[in-house]
Amino acid sequence: MSEMHFMEKLLDGVEVEWKALGAVSNILRGRRLTKNQLSDSEKFPVFHGGLDPLGYYGQGNRPANTVMIINVGASAGTVGYSVVDFWSSDGCFCIEHNDSLNNRFLYYALIGHQQLLRSRVRVAGIPTLDAIVVEKLQIPIPCPENPEKSFEIQAEIVRILDAFTELTAELTAELTARKKQYNYYRDQLLSFEEGEVEWKTLGDLCVIGDGLHGTPKYDDNGEYFFINGNNLDNGNIVFNDKTKKVNNSMFKKHGIIFTAKNTVFLSINGTIGSVSFYDNEKIILGKSVAFFNIKSSELYSRYLYYFLQTDFSKKYFEAQKTGSTIKNLGLKALRSFEIPLPTYAEQARIVSLLDKFDALTNSITEGLPREIALRQKQYEHYRNLLLSFKGKAHAN
Q: What domains are there in the chain, each with its CATH number?
């Protein structure tokens, strides 16, 4: 029997009652602890404003297998689930255990509401999600007149969705291990014994500069993107709906001409060390992006791209950055940075090896990232299918 056919049979003829979450369970608010009450040596994780523990405490106030919803801060509206007893702070709503809902089933149902929850966060001052929003969420309860059958269906839906999430978790863990292996392999390939190769400063090999030190005049209809360091990701320049644009006159005033073959970008302000290539995008750089226009025929751009990501480079950047609150890596330090320079043919050989490994660990069109993305889409499809109860009776 196919998985799809099995799911259709599982839900065939199942009536469902949709109820407000507040009508079937209580929304519990936690109690805040001070930082001096927390210790890494204690047993119970403390959640406040995020799904990563704020610290650990000597006792818990919520049992294992509890669904939580973050209600303050940047993560407000995020749904979580704890498999261990824990302490809920006042930045974390918890759903009280009840007789009509399998907690894991409830978790999957609420994940489907996560986008809605985030859209209802009040953003004036500290982002805050009100309990009333959570209480009004509509939750499906299959076979409401038959609690035993209801729990049986909920448990089977949980079993199917857990299988998808466990597979994704396994793939993600494998990807993490491969990335560590890749980083080690990359650093080994790009390490050289003293006297083995010539060393030259980047200032001798490249024209190095940064972007506009100021704010341009934005134009929503402009065709050039104004980018900063956070637009650099795994070799690519990425844009989204929030990326500002400027028009042609601003480009003529502040734009720089780059060539795809010989240009590499590096983030140098705030988050330091993100690297990308130029691929003929229409862009104007902000001050948090440095550019390397390679002027020497001795240096291969992809070799520079990989070398800037090594531990050797990161240690140099760490030692050279300045600033108290927001760190900055200066152009003088970049121009003085000495890198090993094997022959062009050897650079090409190293790049060829690293390109293959990089595709397996970072590419969204091949390797593990692609597999994880596909499994995530599959999970979301089945979650929506199993929790929509299409064609069944809905009651408020």
A: 3-143 (3.90.220.20), 198-341 (3.90.220.20)
